[in-house]
Specification:
The protein is α/β, with parallel strands linked by helices. It is built from 15 helices and 15 strands. The strands form three sheets. The chain has a seven-stranded parallel beta sheet with strand order 3-2-1-6-7-8-9, with helices on both faces.
């Protein structure tokens, strides 16, 4: 079986979507399934069995860290040479449309996976008037695929409401070798000044659609009401960094981290505060739970489903900074409640094996290819 994947971006640890796709490709190669990846950015690969192809791209005007892939004529030649049995598209953009059209023209099964709720980002950039149009386009795109995979039931329901028809679940696993309480560092906590305080962590990109205005307000509530209760740490980077540093002068900014450094920051914190309303799942939340951090998340978006299934934290009303603050304070002041949520999160993490999750997903690949062969 030969699988062609259009990944959008395939830069290692870029975001939750790329982490998911790296795990999928790892699983495919472990099964000795011939795999090709097309993307506008690709981290050099150690495994030479993976065939990778760069696609020309242009930077997004509002966020140049991400780009728009522009398909060129050589894409068809590359696909002809690879001869895929199945195509998997992860972004419904111009390049994704080119893969979709190629699959239809050549009678190749095609599936899509939903990683990013692009429509929910529009309001943060003054483009709310495009919300309905964006969803109509995405529904049209996905309904031309054999299946589209959602990461959570909540997102699957949202897609159904907007007219997407053939939806299956593809949950996300957790790499417990990378995110685990054993990476806790007392030296790091001492450096943060957290010897007798709880550490509240945000991890992710510093962009408006992560609802960081709520995080800033929670910071100010702690400074006003309980300045000695918590240390605020933010791990990541992005275009809002200067604003965040100005508004939270006593917060600690680690910068962009990956690997062992990121694992240690997670495990050395105590609570994950993640107010985003635009997540389809929230890999950050699963990484936090796996590291021993109860999470406080919004009641809008995919993070809520993760926290509720794990019973590993608290859910606050979206946009209400006071509710996020009160939940954090409860976790700080009620030790028994904190320990319960922490243990629940850790138990949940043990059930999220990438091998098992991707094994079921790859079985769908085989099923679709077998269906085509029987025709």
């Amino acid at each position: 079986m030969r699988i062609a994947i259009y990944a959008g971006c395939f830069r290692e640890n870029q975001d939750g979507a790329t982490k998911t796709l790296y795990q999928l490709v790892r699983s495919l190669l472990a099964e000795e399934i011939e795999t090709g990846v097309w993307a506008y950015a690709i981290t050099p690969q150690k495994n030479k069995a993976l065939k990778s192809h760069l696609i020309f791209s242009l930077p997004l005007p509002l966020y140049p860290d991400y780009r728009i892939a522009i398909p060129q004529r050589k894409l068809q030649r590359q696909l002809n040479a690879f001869r895929p049995d199945l195509i998997h598209v992860t972004v419904p953009d111009l390049a994704g449309l080119a893969f979709l059209n190629y699959a239809k023209k050549n009678n190749i099964p095609i599936v899509a996976s939903f990683h990013t709720d692009f429509a929910s980002y529009l309001k943060y950039y003054g483009l709310s008037f495009l919300f309905r149009t964006t969803w109509k386009y995405m529904a049209h795109f996905y309904n031309r695929c054999r299946w589209v995979y959602a990461p959570t039931e909540m997102i699957a329901d949202k897609m159904l409401r907007w007219g997407v028809k053939r939806i299956r679940l593809w949950p996300r696993g957790i790499d417990r070798s990378s995110f685990h309480p054993r990476f806790r560092s007392e030296a790091r906590r001492k450096q943060w000044g957290a010897n007798d305080k709880k550490v509240i962590l945000y991890a992710g990109r510093f962009v408006p659609y992560k609802d960081l205005d709520i995080f800033m307000r929670v910071y100010k509530l702690f400074k006003e009401k309980n300045p000695d209760k918590a240390v605020i740490v933010l791990a990541g980077d992005g275009p809002m960094r200067n604003e965040l540093e100005d508004e939270m002068p006593e917060a600690i900014f680690t910068g962009y981290l990956s690997g062992q450094d990121l694992a240690s920051v997670y495990a050395s914190a105590d609570i994950l505060l993640f107010p985003s309303t635009t997540e389809t799942l929230g890999n950050v939340v699963q990484e936090g739970l796996s590291s021993g951090l109860p999470a406080v998340v919004s009641d809008v978006g995919g993070c809520r489903e993760v926290v509720e299934k794990a019973d590993g934290g608290l859910v606050a009303k979206a946009g209400h900074a006071e509710a996020f603050y009160e939940h954090c304070l409860r976790l700080i002041e009620d030790d028994a409640f904190y320990r319960l949520k922490r243990e629940n999160g850790l138990k949940y993490s043990e059930t999220r094996s990438w091998d098992e999750i991707n094994g079921r997903f790859i079985a769908d690949y085989f099923s679709l290819c077998d269906q085509k062969a029987r025709r």
